[in-house]
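Q: Here's a chain of 199 amino acids. Please give me its 3D structure as tokens.
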Amino acid sequence: MNRVPDLHGEHLRLRELRAADQPVHERIVTSRSLTRYLGTDRMDTAQAHDAFAAVLAQPLAHVRRKYTLAVCTPDDDTMLGTAGLLIEDYGSNAMLTTVVLLPGSALAGHAHETGRLLMAYGFGSLGLHRIWAGHRTDHDHMPPIMRAAGLTSEAILRQLFRTRGCWHDVTTYSALAPDWKRQATPAELAILDVPASAG
């Protein structure tokens, strides 16, 4: 099994999804507003059911490429969002994906911390060299979140994906392990220092 240990930050915690998280996961992926800026269209109930089953199976993969984690407060196991890391099939690269926090939750204003915890795990236990992320160019709230996560703007990818019948341009960002590690917080350094066999 390729399970991720709980990743503890200052304001939130990331953990593997569990069967009891299905209603919250479904709420996210079937919501018109919560999926508005994601790279996939919102799902219907049947699609959400299949997607959740696939997420639960991720730790069972012989070679794990997808990491979809639940976002919680430090002292409460209730799922309040999701965050993901997708390992690419070449090089030592990965993409941050599907960072979604439920509106009105106690985690408002801390979306950047989900990315930082995933990057600490990726640059530490997974031995990655480069992690990138992107957002639709019309998602005006994202640039400061990307910078707060320690990502540097790189490029605009034209018409990268199509949702709701429209093609969307995406602004991309990246972080390199040596640079990112130099500005890691104490909590992130603790994750970085965990040996690969312990993850």
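Q: Can you summarize the key feature?
A: Strands lie at 7-8, 13-16, 66-73, 76-87, 93-101, 130-136, 152-163, 166-176.
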